[in-house]
Design goal:
- The structure holds two protein chains of two kinds.
- Chain A is mainly α.
- Chain A has a domain of about 90 residues.
- Chain A is built from seven helices and three strands, in the order αααααααβββ.
- Chain A has a three-stranded antiparallel β-sheet with strand order 1-2-3, with helices on one face.
- In chain A, a hairpin with a 2-residue loop joins strand 2 and strand 3.
- Chain A is rod-shaped and about 135 Å long.
- The N and C termini of chain A lie far apart (about 105 Å).
- The C terminus of chain A is likely disordered.
- Chain B is mainly α.
- Chain B folds into two domains: about 90 residues, Rna Polymerase Sigma Factor, Chain: A (Orthogonal Bundle), CATH 1.10.1740; about 120 residues, Winged helix-like DNA-binding domain superfamily/Winged helix DNA-binding domain (Arc Repressor Mutant, subunit A, Orthogonal Bundle).
- Chain B is built from eleven helices and no strands.
- In chain B, helix 3 crosses helix 4.
- Chain B starts with 7 loop residues before the first helix and ends with a helix.
- The C terminus of chain B is likely disordered.
- Classes of the chains: A mainly alpha, B mainly alpha.
Chain lengths: ~230, ~220
């Protein structure tokens, strides 16, 4: 029979392997002593070894009981759980995808200015065309009736022999302009353009009278001018 | 692609590289064990399955933090334990029941006067008997949440007192005492439950049992 020298709580901790080496030795000594006493005179109560055996059996029974409970769960139920987990992992993965890097300051500036610089560039192109037309007077046409920038620009013809002046060399194009005054000088005030076409785009030119004088306004649009316009 | 039969370390390594199938293999290896633990804590099938699901999601999420100092299943069981304890605490708030030893504390410190399982005969056969396993589950049902938790952590998960103390945020001494009382209560519950079993079993199985080896509740309970 167990005495007060070893408490059941100590025996429980001994069973769990949670005693210090000294305490463990003490319990083992007590168990050996108790076994000898039991052999001489059996006690009415359970021995220390019987208590330990019961603890071991209870542990095994607990494991067996809960394993049996787990075995009752159909495999399909775990498959459902896996599907849920799979979806959750997909969400996790999507949440951890690296975010699109912030555009640089330049990119943002360009983006902000896009509504402005596109029409500006288009206008600059138109202005260049107009300048060439105005400067050149009537636009010469080829046999097919089309006009091209190549045709607008006058090709330099072979220059007449000029006495070289070594002190001031004349640039080629100036020399050509001077040598070929074939078109009359246009008067800008005479130009009256109401509609333009440029690179497949359409637009209109108008004027607004204000306190500071007349402002020329050019509309250029990618879309049908009837439905959308951009103004400069 | 790593084989589903590969060891835990290899599967964990594959999971870290994004191998979803390796993770599924790990889950299939431990899902029922995790369920056993969760069911032991929570005593409800759907709650236990919820914990299984949540546990593996957490495992996957924090796999990068698993250093491999302990085995994978030890780490997994810690996650399961924490989730179960959280679940009990949350439910406690809803149910307004106490997650406390005092709820069903035995209040005695005397010696054990009966060994309900040992008295049923051959231990190997005891573990095969359905009614005994059911009695163990019933016993768990009637333990307090804390007593049930320490029993599951110790008996099913093999956690040390130190680990249990960390999980339950208390001292090792408290765990030692709590576990002792939990076992005593479990023994009493089993004695009550199994005290009537042998005669019925004798009828069913035809076993010739020694009546003196079986304690009746009246005889063994104080």
């Amino acid at each position: 029979m167990m005495t007060k020298t070893i408490s059941e709580q100590q025996l429980s901790a001994y069973f769990d392997g949670e005693l210090s080496p000294a305490e463990r030795a003490e319990v083992e000594q007590w168990l050996a002593h108790e076994a000898a006493d039991e052999a001489a005179a059996p006690s009415a109560g359970p021995s220390g070894r019987a208590v330990l055996a019961e603890l071991g059996l209870m542990r095994d029974a607990l494991g067996a009981s809960l394993n049996a409970e787990a075995a009752r769960v159909p495999e399909a139920r775990f498959e459902q759980i896996w599907d849920e987990i799979d979806r959750a992992l997909d969400r996790d993965t999507a949440a951890h995808q690296p975010a699109t890097p912030n555009p640089s300051l330049w990119a943002r500036a360009i983006g902000l200015l896009r509504p402005v610089w596109v029409p500006v560039a288009a206008t600059a192109g138109i202005a260049a065309v107009l300048l060439a037309v105005v400067k050149g007077g009537a636009v010469p046409t080829d046999a097919t009736g089309t006009n091209t920038a190549e045709l607008v620009a006058s090709k330099p013809e072979p220059l007449p022999p000029v006495t070289p002046t070594p002190a001031v060399p004349t640039p080629g194009f100036l020399a050509a302009a001077e040598a070929e005054p074939s078109f009359p000088e246009p008067d800008m005030r005479e130009a009256d353009i109401e509609r333009i076409e440029f690179s497949g785009k359409q637009g209109r030119i108008g004027t607004i009278e204000g306190k500071r004088g007349t402002t020329t306004v050019i509309w250029v649009s990618d879309e049908d001018p009837g439905t959308g316009e951009r103004s400069l | 692609m790593v084989s589903p039969e590969a060891d835990d370390q290899s599967l964990v390594a594959a999971c870290r590289l994004g191998d979803r199938q390796a993770f599924k293999s790990l889950m299939q290896r431990y899902q029922r064990k995790v369920y056993s633990v969760a069911y032991g804590f929570l005593r409800n099938q759907e709650d236990a399955l919820d914990v299984v699901q949540e546990s593996f999601i957490k495992v996957h999420r924090y796999l990068g933090n698993f250093e491999g100092n302990s085995s994978f299943y030890t780490w997994l069981y810690r996650i399961v334990t924490n989730l179960c304890i959280d679940h009990i605490r949350k439910n406690k708030r809803h149910r307004e029941l106490e997650f406390d030893d005092g709820l069903r504390h035995d209040g005695e410190d005397g010696a054990v006067s009966a060994l309900p399982l040992s008295s049923l005969g051959d231990p190997a056969q005891v573990l095969q008997r359905r009614e005994i396993l059911d009695a163990v589950q019933d016993g768990l049902q009637y333990l307090s949440d804390k007593h049930r938790a320490v029993i599951i952590m110790r008996e099913l998960q093999g956690m040390s007192y130190e680990e249990m103390a960390q999980a339950m945020k208390c001292s090792k001494g408290t765990i030692m005492s709590r576990l002792f009382h939990a076992r005593r209560n479990m023994q009493k519950l089993l004695t009550e439950r199994l005290g009537y079993v042998p005669s019925a079993l004798a009828d069913e199985t035809g076993e010739d049992r020694d009546a003196t080896s079986v304690a009746t509740p009246q005889a063994v309970l104080p």
